[in-house]
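Reviewer 2 asked us to include a model.

Predict the structure of this chain.
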Amino acid sequence: MKIIAITAAALGLATAIVPAAASAQGNWRPIVQRQANLDQRIDQGIRSGRLNRPEARRIQMEFRQLNQLENRYRRSNGLSISERRDLDRRYDALSARVRYEKNDRQHRR
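Predicted model (structure tokens):
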């Protein structure tokens, strides 16, 4: 009987701790999700004409290089914390660049 009570208490504690740990990470999203979101934004910018061809080529090249860097990081025993931070910083910068280029009013005509 005591084992069941202890197990129930431990599960209750774990249930309370997991959401708190998840929210402590802030708005961090998995890298795969960030890649998909960014790729979608680039494609949408190309389709709508808000990214002109040179902008789109540069951004797509930078996106491919970032994916290659991530693959190199993953091949060396997975992603370390510093590598994850580096990728997050680079994805943030590329995301800001996409936002800037889409709103710089250099649309194709």
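Residues 29-102 form one domain. The radius of gyration is 21 Å. We have added this to the supplementary material.
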